[in-house]
Design brief:
Length: about 160
C-alpha cells in the first residue's frame, strides 16, 4: 500500500504553515479502506473533506469500481465528523442515471445521518458510447420539489449547502 496520505499530509501542513488563513478542500480517495490513512488526512489541516458518493445506493454497483463498497464511503464521510468538529464534509452525486425522487430523499437522509455538510448535484453526461447510458436530463423544474418539501426541507436545512 502506498503512503499517499503521508505525502498529502505533509503538503497540507506546509501550505498551512506558509499561508495560515488558506482554506483547503481535498477530494479524497477511500485509501482502499485504510481508515488510519483517512484519519491522517482528516487531521492534517484541511478545511473541507470531500469524498464522492456518486449515485444512489441501487446504482452503486453499476457506477462505481466494485472494490469500493458503499459502507466504505459512509465510513470515510462519517469518520471526518467524528475526528474533527471544525472539518466540513462534502460529497457529490451525479443525476440522470435513472435514480428516483424517493432514492434521492433516502440518500439525503443517509448523508445527514453520516454528518455530511455539503452536497453537490451534477448532471451526468455520457462521454462516449459504451459508457454508462444517460437515462434522463435533469431540468430544475423536473425535480419533484413538492414531495421533497413535504418531508425533507428540515433535513435539507440541516445540511449546510445543497448545490445544483
Amino acid at each position: 500500500m502506498t503512503e499517499d496520505h503521508l505525502i498529502l499530509q505533509s503538503a497540507l501542513k506546509n501550505l498551512k504553515k506558509k499561508i495560515p488563513k488558506l482554506l483547503i478542500e481535498v477530494l479524497a480517495p477511500d485509501f482502499r479502506g485504510n481508515m488510519d490513512a483517512v484519519q491522517t488526512l482528516a487531521t492534517s489541516g484541511l478545511n473541507v473533506f470531500a469524498h464522492n458518493l456518486e449515485t444512489v445506493n441501487r446504482l452503486q454497483a453499476f457506477v462505481r469500481d466494485p472494490r469500493l463498497t458503499i459502507s466504505r464511503v459512509w465510513m470515510c464521510l462519517s469518520m471526518q465528523r467524528i475526528l474533527s468538529r471544525v472539518l466540513v464534509t462534502k460529497t457529490s452525486l451525479m443525476l440522470g442515471l435513472g435514480e428516483t425522487d424517493d432514492e434521492l430523499i433516502e440518500t439525503m437522509t443517509d448523508l445527514k445521518q453520516n454528518g455530511v455538510d455539503i452536497v453537490t448535484f451534477g448532471q451526468y453526461m455520457q462521454p462516449t458510447n459504451g459508457i454508462l447510458k444517460l437515462r434522463n436530463m435533469l431540468l430544475l423544474k423536473s425535480l419533484n420539489i413538492g414531495k421533497m418539501s413535504e418531508i425533507r426541507w428540515v433535513l435539507l436545512l440541516e445540511i449546510r449547502w445543497v448545490l445544483l
